[in-house]
Amino acid sequence: MQTTKLKIQTQSRIKELQALQAQAEAGCDTVVLDQTRVGRLSRMDAMQSQAMNQEAQRRRKIEISRLDAALKNMAEGDYGYCEDCGEEIAHGRLMLDPAAPFCITCAQKNESR
């Protein structure tokens, strides 16, 4: 399996996610609870926005970890094989998700569990 294109795609996605992480840092700052400066509803909106930004950050970190693991597997020559059955993962599936750990059959089995 040719992994060069997938490696470039994966590295590009990691850079994109890291840039988003850096941009979103300000949205995770502590919400000011000074009632003389900000109204109650505005504080509630700010707290909700903060929680949403923190969750988005958490999800980006998970995706970066998955992509880093895929790059490691590429370097070790273990990339593109299902973690459950050991069969080769379809190239189209890897193009959609370079960090896919399972073939489509095993992924469907795991979902139904």
Please characterize this protein's 3D structure.
The radius of gyration is 19 Å and the shape is elongated. The chain is built from four helices and no strands. The two termini are about 30 Å apart. The chain is mainly alpha-helical. The protein has helices at about 5-25, 40-75, 90-95, 105-110. Helix 1 (about 5-25) runs antiparallel to helix 2. It has one domain: Four Helix Bundle (Hemerythrin (Met), subunit A) (Up-down Bundle), CATH 1.20.120.
What are the salient characteristics of this protein?
0% strand; mainly alpha; 4 helices; elongated; 64% helix
Largest sheet: none
Low-pLDDT windows of residues: none
Number of strands: 0
Task: Tell me, rounded to a whole number, the average pLDDT.
Answer: 86
* Helix and strand sequence: HHHH
- Round the Cα radius of gyration to an integer and report it: 19 Å
- The CATH topology: Four Helix Bundle (Hemerythrin (Met), subunit A)
The CATH architecture comes to: Up-down Bundle
In percent, how much strand structure appears in the residues?
under 5%
Number of domains: 1
**Shape designation:** elongated
Class from secondary-structure proportions: mainly alpha
> Helical content, roughly?
55-70%
The CATH superfamily is identified as DksA, coiled-coil domain
